User: What shape does this take?
Amino acid sequence: MDYPVVRMRRLRKNSNMRDMVRENKLNKEDLIYPIYFKEGLEKGEKEEISTMPGQFRYSIEDGVEYAKELEAKGLKSIILFGIPKEETKDKIGSPAFDDNGIVQNAIRTLKKETNLIVMADVCLCEYTSHGHCGLIKTYVEDDIYDDTDDGIKILNDSSLKYLVKTAISQAKAGADVIAPSDMMDGRIQAIRKGLDDAGFSDVLILSYSAKYASSFYAPFRDAACSTPGQGNRKSYQMDPANSREAVRECELDVIEGADMLMVKPALSYLDIIKTIKEEFSLPLVSYNVSGEYSMIMAAIEKGYLNEESIMESLLSIKRAGSDLIISYFTPYLLDNL
Ligand code: PBG
Assistant: This one.
């Protein structure tokens, strides 16, 4: 049967009808809020991130206060990033696995003062002097074995030890979920074993499985002061042109012991979200990254778009199949859902 007997518009006739037949809905429970804690800030001293209007670097007191506000509005989970003092950064990212580090202290306070599920990003880039997510070797001009693009090699296996140390230190502080975003091979296996051996077999791993080398992270690197000094992240993060490779990354993470998978970024990678949802049965998280936030915020500020674009873009991530969404729009969504 077809028109004029079939009329699609009958199902859209008013908002009650549309509410009834709506296929996908965003829920407050779907949201994870990314928050930046900066060492050395005093209470009351939050810093607005210039490339991310409405987002701040917080002291522990202020960040925890804000988290409590969001929890009261229905937030279930938060993911933490740390910004250590510049002068403490070194070649191996020591402040990342300092039991008294900024993230560790923030986790302890959050676990004490809220019931939120506390996730901790595991990576070295915010803590290394060179800004890479693992240890590096730099080559001089006459090195025979230099097969790198730019004279810098990110060392996979020797980085694992420090990622494991970071994960254990965060688990000790009380993190519920460890989220490695470094993209070294074998990290999930190494971290799972490290956590289990240290007595943290109840701590989950959310793997940044399909993490692309994306230009949409630019505002984050500004926020977290983690732009690499030399070279780029293309030898460890994925090529935006590839999709089957995302399936392989996820397969390995499942075998290595991940509890949840992630696709990142989200909006330019909706096809990847859909594929991963179809291929795997683990909870799927998507990261609606900094650039995706700033792009819409900039357009709203200029008057090119209105606020409805926020809900629509987040809904597309849900429709593609994501179970959970990490988003800087979380505070807005908690107010508007
Ligand atoms: C750390 C990390 C990054 C993001 C999350 N964890 C940046 C990067 O890989 O350079 C990006 C998050 C965002 O853009 O919001 N490796």
